[in-house]
C-alpha cells in the first residue's frame, strides 16, 4: 500500500532522529545503514527512498541535532548553560547530548559538507551565547565573541576529555569539576544553578 506524503515525511524525520542519536552514541563509522534502519523500524531498502547516501543522512542528522542543542538551552543564563554542559549527566548521556562534544572528532575526518554543517552549528551556538552574555548589564561588552569561543571550546574539550577516561575513573570527574570551576570563575556572573536537573539535549 502506498504511503501518503505526510507519512513519508514523518518516516524520514524519524530516521533522522534515530540516526542522530546513534551517531552521537557510536560515531559515524560505528553504525551502518542496515542497523540504523532496523533501529528506526524500517528495512534497509527503504533508506534510498529518503537519502542519496549515508553522508547525506549524516549532514541532515547533524543539522537536526545541532538545532536541538540551541532549543534545549533557550532561556538559560550562560552560567546555567555551563552547569548543564560540563556535568556528569551530559558526559554520560552521549546519545542524547551535544553533537559537538560527541562528534567533533569524527567530523574532522569527514566531508567539507559535514564540516560546513558543524561550522554553522558552532556559529549559531556562539551567537546565542553572545546574546545571553551581552544581555547582562554586569557583563563586559568588549571581546565577547572571543570569550564565548574560548568558553565553548573549553566546555566541549572538558566533556570529550572526560569521556576518553573510563566511566569509573576519578579523573573523568576531576576533569569536569576543574573545568567547570575554571569556566565559571572566568565569567562575571555567579552560577545560578549548580548541578541543574535539566538534561542537555542535542
Q: In words, what does this structure look like?
A:
There is one protein chain. By secondary structure, the protein is mostly helical. The protein has a single domain, classed as Tetracycline Repressor, domain 2 (Orthogonal Bundle). About 65% of the residues lie in helices and about 0% in strands. The chain is built from nine helices and no strands. Helix 3 runs parallel beside helix 7, helix 7 packs across helix 8 and helix 8 packs antiparallel against helix 9. About 30% of the residues are buried.
In CATH terms, what is the fold-level topology? Tetracycline Repressor, domain 2
Q: Provide the succession of SSEs.
A: HHHHHHHHH
User: Beta-sheet strand percentage?
Assistant: under 5%
CATH class: Mainly Alpha
- Main pleated-sheet profile: none
Distance between the termini: 35 Å
Instruction: Kindly report the name of the CATH homologous superfamily.
Output: Tetracycline Repressor, domain 2
Radius of gyration using CA atoms only = 18 Å
Q: What is the helix fraction of residues, given as a range?
A: 55-70%
Overall tally of domains: 1
Number of strands: 0
CATH architecture: Orthogonal Bundle
Short description:
The chain is mainly alpha-helical and 202 residues long.
What secondary-structure arrangement, pairings included, does this model have?
Blueprint: H1 5-26, H2 33-40, H3 54-72, H4 78-85, H5 88-92, H6 99-107, H7 112-135, H8 144-163, H9 170-185
Helix pairs in contact: 1-2, 1-3, 3-7, 7-8, 8-9
List keywords for this structure.
mainly alpha; Tetracycline Repressor, domain 2
Amino acid at each position: 500500500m502506498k504511503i501518503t506524503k505526510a507519512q513519508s515525511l514523518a518516516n524520514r524525520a524519524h530516521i533522522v532522529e534515530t540516526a542522530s542519536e546513534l551517531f552521537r552514541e557510536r560515531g559515524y563509522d560505528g553504525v551502518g545503514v542496515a542497523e540504523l534502519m532496523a533501529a528506526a523500524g524500517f528495512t534497509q531498502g527503504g533508506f534510498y527512498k529518503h537519502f542519496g547516501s549515508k553522508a547525506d543522512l549524516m549532514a541532515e542528522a547533524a543539522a537536526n541535532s545541532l538545532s536541538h542543542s540551541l532549543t534545549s538551552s533557550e532561556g538559560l543564563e550562560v552560567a546555567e548553560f555551563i552547569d548543564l554542559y560540563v556535568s556528569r549527566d551530559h558526559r554520560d548521556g552521549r546519545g542524547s547530548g551535544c553533537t559537538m562534544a560527541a562528534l567533533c572528532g569524527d567530523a574532522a575526518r569527514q566531508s567539507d559538507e559535514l564540516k560546513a554543517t558543524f561550522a554553522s552549528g558552532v556559529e549559531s551556538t556562539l551567537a546565542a551565547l553572545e546574546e545571553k552574555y551581552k544581555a547582562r548589564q554586569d557583563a563586559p561588552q568588549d571581546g565577547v565573541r572571543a570569550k564565548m569561543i574560548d568558553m565553548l571550546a573549553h566546555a566541549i574539550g572538558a566533556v570529550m576529555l572526560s569521556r576518553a577516561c573510563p566511566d569509573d575513573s576519578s579523573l573523568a570527574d576531576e576533569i569536569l569539576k576543574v573545568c567547570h570551576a575554571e569556566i565559571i570563575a572566568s565569567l562575571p556572573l555567579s552560577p545560578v544553578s549548580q548541578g541543574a536537573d535539566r538534561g542537555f539535549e542535542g
